[in-house]
Amino acid sequence: MSELMRRVDAVEPEIRAIWQQLHQNPERGMALPNTAKLIEAELLAKTGVEVHRVGEAGIWAVLRGGKPGGDDGVLMLRGDMDALPIQEATDLPYASRSPGVMHACGHDVHASSLLGAVRVLEQYRDQIPGEIWFFFQPGEEVLQGAKSFLADPHIDFSRVRACAGCHVLGFTEVGKVSVRYGSHLASLDALHFTVRGRGAHASTPNETVDAMVVAAELIMKLQVLLSREVNPSDMANLTLGYIRAGEPDRVGWVADRVELGAGMRTVNPATRTRLLERIQAICDGLSLATRAEIDFSYENQCPALWNTPALCDVAVRAVEHTLGAQAVELAPSPALGAEDFAFYTQHFPGVFLSIGCRTPGRDSIPAHTPEFYTDPGTIRTCIAAYAAFALEYFGVALGDTEGGSDTI
Ligand SMILES: [Zn+2]
Ligand SMILES: [Zn+2]
Questions:
Q1: Does this model's pTM top 0.70?
Q2: How far is the CA of 167 from the centre of ligand 1 (A)?
Q3: Residue 112 burial by Cβ neighbours in a 10 Å radius (0-12, 13-18, 19+)
Q4: In sequence order, what are the beta bridge partners of 318?
Q5: 68 phi and psi, to 5 degrees?
Q6: The pLDDT of residue 404 is above 80
Q7: CA 292–ligand 2 middle distance (angstroms)
Q8: pLDDT of residue 311
Q9: Cα(198) to centroid of ligand 2, in Å?
Q10: How far does the centroid of ligand 1 lie from the alpha carbon of residue 221, in Å?
Q11: In percent, how much of the chain has pLDDT > 70?
C-alpha cells in the first residue's frame, strides 16, 4: 500500500463520522449555517490552513506549499455541501433528521472527503511547490454557489492554474474512479414561451385564436426538432417543465394565453446555438400560420463542462498510482446532467472526476431520488482522488500502488 493510502486510511474513520453527521443534518441552498460551522470548526481544530468565509456559507481554505521553485500558481479543489428538497426513504441509521431535506446527490461525501484531503495534503506541505485552495461550496443545486466564489473580490483568481472536483456516481461500483476526457456534462438553458391568442365562447371557434391548440403544436414541433436537427452522434434533450393555461370551470371558453417552459440540455455549443435559432424560427413560423403571438426567451443557467485532457491524464496517473490501474474507468460518452463546477472550467483548465458509490451486488440508484445511497467506502476513494490528484499535479512522488506494486 502506498504511503498516501496509509495516510488516507489514518484520517478516514474521523471523516466517515463527519460524513454521517452531515448526512443526518442536511441543509439546502446558499445558507448552510450548521454545515459551514462544522467544516470550519474541523479545519480550525485539526489543520493549520488559512480559513476564510465566502458569503454566508462558503469556505475558502488555503494550503501554502513549502517547496521553493513554484510559480506562485494555485490548484483549486472544490467540494460542494448542499442538499435537496427530497424526503429521504432509506433505512440508514444516519438517515436525514430534517423533514423534506436530503443529501440525495452525495454532496455530504464531497464536503467531508475534501476535508480529509486537506488533512492528508498538509502532511506533504514541504513537497508542494505552490498553493492549494479548497473551496467548500454551498448552492450547487441552485447553480449559485460557484458564481458566488467567482464573484468574491478577495479571491485573486488570476493565480489559479487548474481546478478539480469530484462527484459520486451511483452507476459505478465503489472503489472506481471514472474519468471523462473532453466534453463531460451538459449546458442547461431554461426556455420560456408565452402564446397569446384571442379568447371567445367555444361555440364560435372561428372568432378565436386558440392559444392552447397553438401551444400543443409548439410542444410537438420542439420534440421533432431534437430528432431532425441534431446529429445522431451528438446529444441534446428538451423537456417540458411547466404549462399554465385556462381555468377548470371554463371548459366552454377558448383560452387566449398559454405559458410554458422547458429545460434544454446540450453538450456541444454549436448544437445549442443551432437549436436556439431553430426554436425562434419555429415560433415565428407558427405565429405566422396561426395568428397567435409567441414570445420566446431563454436564459443559460449553467454552461457545459469540459474536462481538459492534460488534467485527465494527471487524474488517471494519480488514481493508477494510488488505487491501482483497475480503479480507473474511462467514461465513453458525456452525460446530460448539469453541474455548476462548469462555471470554474469556463475560466481555468479543470477536471471533474466521478467517484463510484454503488455497493457491489446492489442496484444502482440515481441521484436526486429518495432511495439514493452512497457506499461508506466511497469516502476513502474520494479522499484519495482529491489528494492524489493534487500531489500528481504538483509532481510529488506517490510511491507504491495499492497492493504493493509500483510497476504500472
Ligand atoms: Zn444534484
Ligand atoms: Zn451533485
A1: yes
A2: 9
A3: buried
A4: none
A5: -70, 165
A6: no
A7: 40
A8: 98
A9: 44
A10: 30
A11: 98
Same fold, 3-185+306-393 and 187-302: no
Radius of gyration (C-alpha) of the chain in whole angstroms: 24
- Alpha-carbon distance 303 to 317, whole Å? 28
Answer with the residue of higher pLDDT: 68 or 167.
Answer: 167
pLDDT tens column, 26-35: 999 999 999 9
E strands, 144-223, in order? 160-173, 177-179, 182-185, 187-196
Q: Are strands 257-266 and 236-245 parallel, antiparallel or unpaired?
A: antiparallel
How many whole angstroms separate alpha carbon 337 and alpha carbon 348?
Answer: 21
Angle at 43 between CA 122 and CA 319, to 5 degrees: 45
CB 36 within 8 A of CB 96: no
CATH numeric code, 3-185+306-393 = 3.40.630.10
269-274 long-range contacts, Cβ below 8 Å, gap at least 24? 269/187, 269/304, 271/230, 271/231, 271/234, 271/236, 272/187, 272/189, 272/304, 274/229
The one-letter amino acid at 371: E
Find the 107 Cα to ligand 2 centroid distance in Å: 6
pLDDT digits (tens, 9 = 90+) for 333-372: 999 999 999 999 999 999 999 999 999 999 989 999 999 9
Q: Domain segments of the chain: what residues? A: 3-185+306-393, 187-302
Q: Which three cell numbers stand for residue 398?
A: 506517490
Just give the CATH number of 187-302: 3.30.70.360
Give CA–CA dist 252/186, Å, rounded.
43
Is 35 buried (19+), middle (13-18) or exposed (0-12) by CB count in 10 A?
buried
What is the phi/psi pair of residue 94, to 5°? -110, 30
Q: Measure the CA–CA gap between 338 and 340, rounded to whole angstroms.
A: 7
Answer yes or no: is pLDDT of 408 > 50. Answer: no
